[in-house]
Design brief:
Structural class of chain A: alpha+beta
Order of helices and strands of chain A: EEEEEHEEEEEHHEHEH
Radius of gyration of chain B: 28 Å
Strand order of the largest sheet of chain A: 7-10-11-5-4-3-12
Shape of chain A: globular
Number of helices of chain B: 20
Radius of gyration of chain A: 15 Å
Strand content of chain A: 35-45%
Structural class of chain B: alpha/beta
Number of helices of chain A: 5
Number of strands of chain B: 19
Largest sheet of chain B: 8 strands, mixed
Oligomer: heterodimer
Distance between the termini of chain B: 91 Å
Helix content of chain A: 10-25%
Chain lengths: 152, 524
């Protein structure tokens, strides 16, 4: 487990550096969720909307949207492929994203077209994750954007 | 110094404004137009639901149609709003990259709100940011906001209340205000303020806009240049307008909030009475909104407004923890009421959702008070207590224990009904009689009772009811009670000269649920 300040990021996951979405590779498929920094920066998630199952996903293009704090942001696919499963529990209770970001709070499962190629640019492994998040926090702090963004 | 566009699109229809939002955001994400501060207004008036909301649940459509109020859906998140000519919309459409943002973080929104706050300051109004993303004056909201993102660009918008037509707003929006009582409506209105109220006059909208522009210039150090729509935006607008006017957009399917239920509670604490009206989403087990009123004192006065805002969206099982945290963090105080007592008041209201599985509607659950046991825990009732005030004022039995079941009022009907469920009907002729009746039932080891009294009576005498160790269910009374009319002393003596209306159908339902099997059925 990589830990930077209060943020914990499991080593075995792959992270999209911009979107703060994690990917867990399971039997060749990719389960996708929001990492701890992402969910805390967003605040309590109020709604989630997901593209229908069966639709193709394109890396970097939205597969859904998320509303938190009255702001709606896109959820961008970490890999090209096909969306094969929704998490009905998180659609019903979006705050699972905040309560259990690496467990029950996942969004979708994607069947990737070329997994090895698409995960190349994702942060993976203890050192890479730690370095990325450390730099990111430093940058946000310098910009004064890492104050009390979340009351919890 | 960055150069931004100042765009004033004037008063337009809701569909036009939504299509413009989308067009400008797309044009900014494509890099065709600069960062833009836009002012907008609505004509005719409009109700706008949040992107993820359901029109049917949020909007009183028949009222809107009759008044010519347009209904539309925002691109941005948040709740439904009523938008007429007395409100000024402001929005900031910009590129994330221009602010070095990989992702949008809340402190950035706070900075945008700060620009509006600066502007309000120039008008002489001392406003401040309220987590998350509202602008308030002394705890009263003056501008709500919402945002959306598209391909590297974002739109962050707010409504500034210049004036406030509380009645139109409450009629146009469905949840939860339609079920609020008159006193609660005035309390809800207290949570909101407007420029007219703060300044004592309605300022010219041009002055307000100029002040906000100066606020943005100061906070972001940007140069503003007035401009019109870019030809690309106009083209996009023409393409998008039919979609944003369509039922597909306005009524389109999306993930929707669960059905909202308005639940109430009233609870005594040493520091005063706590009343809650809780809008609750049972599917998500979340508080959607909350109104806390009562006769307690809070320091500072804004405490309750802040607490309500803080608890919005809270999961049911976290209410106690969050209230504790709120008071600990803010240092605010409500003498004589502990955080636990606030939590208990809210949870008391929420407990009413548990009545659904026994077939009671939320409105019915709101009319029930219980003593010494929750409704679920009471298996069988033994007595039905009927207050004298529900008998006609000229009834021979008005101040007597019995009833001849003459058919002139519902009391006879309830007597017959109670007897059919082997429940003893007992008329209560005054307060002392009530107490002695309850003591006698307790002495006999009777089953719990079902009674009827108004909420005010229950609040005043809750401790008296509790002083007798006998569980009971009390059903609120419909029409003007002695307490509403200021005649409680007369009522206590049994001399209240008015006839109240019992909630007969609810009492019937409770007799069916909690009475013994009907006598004739039992004989089969």
């Amino acid at each position: 487990m990589a830990k930077v300040e209060k943020y914990e990021l499991p080593d075995e996951l792959h992270y999209d550096r911009k979107e703060h979405l994690w990917s867990r590779i399971e039997n060749g498929n990719v389960r996708v969720g929001l990492d701890m920094f992402g969910q805390q920066a967003a605040g309590t998630v109020a709604y989630i909307k997901l593209m229908p199952v069966g639709r193709p996903t394109r890396k970097g293009r939205p597969f859904g949207s998320l509303e938190a704090g009255k702001y709606i942001g896109p959820l961008r696919a970490p890999v090209n492929g096909k969306l094969i499963e929704h998490n009905q529990a998180v659609l019903q209770n979006p705050s699972l994203v905040n309560e259990d970001p690496y467990g029950q709070g996942w969004f979708v499962v994607i069947e990737p077209n070329d997994l090895q190629e698409d995960v190349k640019d994702l942060a993976h492994g203890h050192d890479a994750i730690t370095e990325w998040l450390t730099n990111e926090l430093k940058e946000y702090r310098e910009k004064g954007l890492l104050g009390e963004e979340e009351e919890d | 110094m960055p150069h931004w566009r100042l765009l004033d699109t004037g008063a337009r229809t809701a569909a036009e404004n939504m299509a413009l939002d989308s067009s400008i955001l797309t044009a900014r994400s494509e890099g065709v137009v600069p960062n833009t501060l836009r002012f907008l207004q609505f004509s005719p008036p409009a109700v706008l639901v949040g992107y993820h909301q359901d029109v049917g649940q949020e909007v009183r459509e028949s009222f809107c149609r009759a008044r010519g109020i347009h209904i539309n859906r925002r691109l941005t998140g948040g709740g439904a709003i009523y938008f007429d000519r007395t409100q000024l919309g402001w929005e900031f459409i910009a590129s994330r990259e221009d602010f070095g943002l990989n992702r949008i973080l809340f402190p950035f929104f706070e900075k945008i709100c700060q620009a509006v706050i600066e502007g309000l300051g120039k008008l002489g109004i001392s406003a401040r940011y309220r987590f998350k993303n509202d602008i308030e004056v002394e705890g009263r909201k003056i501008s709500g906001t919402g945002g959306v993102e598209e391909e590297g660009a974002f739109l962050f918008q707010g409504t500034l209340l210049m004036d406030f037509d509380v009645e139109a707003m409450l009629y146009a929006l469905r949840v939860p205000t339609e079920k609020l009582r008159a006193k609660e409506i005035s309390s809800a209105a207290e949570r909101v303020t407007c420029l007219k109220r703060e300044l004592g006059y309605l300022p010219q909208s041009d002055l307000v806009k100029a002040a906000i522009v100066r606020g943005f210039q100061k906070v972001f150090g940007a140069q503003m240049e007035a401009g019109g729509l870019h030809p690309h935006e106009e083209k996009l607008f023409r393409q998008k307008l039919s979609y944003y006017s369509s039922k597909d957009w306005v009524y389109g399917e999306g993930p929707q909030a669960g059905r909202q239920t308005l639940l109430r509670s009233v609870r005594n604490a040493p520091g005063g009475l706590i009343r809650t009206a809780v809008s609750y989403d049972p599917a998500r087990e979340q508080l959607s909104s909350l109104l806390i009123t009562g006769d307690f004192f809070a320091f500072p006065a804004r405490t309750i407004y802040d607490l309500e805002a803080y608890l919005r969206g809270t999961q049911r099982d976290l209410i106690g923890e969050r209230i504790g945290k709120f008071f600990k963090t803010t240092g605010y105080q409500v003498p004589g009421i502990t955080p636990d007592q606030f939590a208990a008041a809210i949870n008391q209201a929420l407990a009413k959702t548990d009545y659904a599985h026994i077939g009671l509607l939320p409105e019915e659950a709101n009319s029930i008070f219980t003593v010494h046991a929750e409704l679920d825990e009471i298996e069988q009732i033994g007595a039905l207590l009927i207050p004298y005030c529900s008998k006609p004022t000229d009834c021979h039995f008005r101040n007597e224990k019995g009833c001849d079941q003459c058919g002139a009022c519902h009391v006879g009907e309830l007597y017959a009904l109670a007897q059919s469920y082997r429940v003893e009907p007992i008329s209560v002729v005054n307060f002392d009689d009530l107490m002695s009746t309850l003591r006698e039932l307790q002495r006999k080891g009777a089953s719990p009772y079902l009674g009827s009294c108004c909420e005010a009576f229950f609040v005043k005498h809750e401790e008296d009811f509790r002083s007798i160790r006998l569980p009971g269910i009390l059903v609120d009374i419909d029409s003007s009670t002695c307490y509403d009319l200021g005649l409680e002393q007369e009522a206590r003596r049994g001399a209240f000269q008015n006839q109240t209306q019992l909630k007969v159908e609810l009492i019937r339902k409770l007799l069916q649920l909690k009475g013994a099997a009907k006598a004739e059925t039992a004989c089969l």
